[in-house]
Amino acid sequence: MRTNISSGAEWEDKVGYSRAVKTGNQIFVSGTTGIDENGDVVGKDDIYLQTKQCILNIERALKKAGASLEDVVRTRTFITDIDQWEEFGRAHQEFFGEVKPAATLVEVSRLIHPDLMVEIEVDAVV
Description:
Helices cover 29% and strands 30% of the residues. The chain is of the alpha+beta class.
């Protein structure tokens, strides 16, 4: 059984993707950025605040799928400045310090909006 989960963002229909997909007991959350419900970037020039917003957005998608952050088994993160890994890591640890999912962090040249510094995708198992 497959369930597509939408956040309602206009990009989902324009590009043809779901915020998350649940199949069986697995949930796959698409790359998620630090954009709030009004479509504004949270924490311009602050990767810590953007990371927190990313994870809060991921948490909303997981809840719609019947899961929580505690069910996350992997995070994949793309940041535009690897030198800011510690501030990213501080936010990641606040949410996942006890969960300790497998994690990947890589630097990319840019994201879809010039003010975005971080994008995270997660896999969860319930």
